[in-house]
Structures are given as structure tokens and as C-alpha cells.
Design goal:
The protein is mainly alpha-helical and 74 residues long. The chain has 2 helices and 2 strands; from the N terminus they run H-H-E-E. It has a two-stranded antiparallel sheet with strand order 1-2. Helix 1 packs antiparallel against helix 2.
């Protein structure tokens, strides 16, 4: 799964969520899908973190690197 792009991972995650929301998935399959979804969430989170770090390094002010602070507010 780590070889998928962020967009591909997000698309697969959305497909799994839709499948689980329909409620017609047998329990064992639902557990497998949930496990896959959690792996995709981890991949997406890692890719976002790397992107944030890259942006923080690019953005400079007065010749100094600025810290990139991410708010957990939703």
C-alpha cells in the first residue's frame, strides 16, 4: 500500500468507507476492510507529514527556516 500515491490511497479509503457504510458486508470481511482502511490512513498520514516537512523547508523568512505548525483543530 505504501507504493500508492496519496490520492490513490485516499480513493481506496473512501471506497472502503462506502462499502462499510452500506452495511451489507459480512463481519469477517468488514474486519478485513477495517484493517485495510487503518493501513491506508497510516500511509496517508505519513505522506502528509512528509509533505508538511518539505513545505516547511521550502518556506523561508529572513533566511531562516520557519517551523510548520499543524493545528489539530477540526
Amino acid at each position: 500500500m505504501e507504493d500508492l500515491s496519496f490520492e490513490e490511497s485516499l480513493e481506496k479509503l473512501e471506497e472502503i468507507v462506502e462499502k462499510l457504510e452500506n452495511g451489507d458486508v459480512p463481519l469477517d470481511d468488514a474486519i478485513d476492510e477495517f484493517n485495510n482502511a487503518m493501513q491506508l490512513v497510516k500511509v496517508c498520514d505519513e505522506k502528509l507529514t512528509k509533505a508538511e516537512e518539505s513545505i516547511a523547508k521550502i518556506v523561508e523568512e529572513n533566511g531562516e527556516l520557519m517551523d510548520f505548525v499543524v493545528s489539530d483543530e477540526e
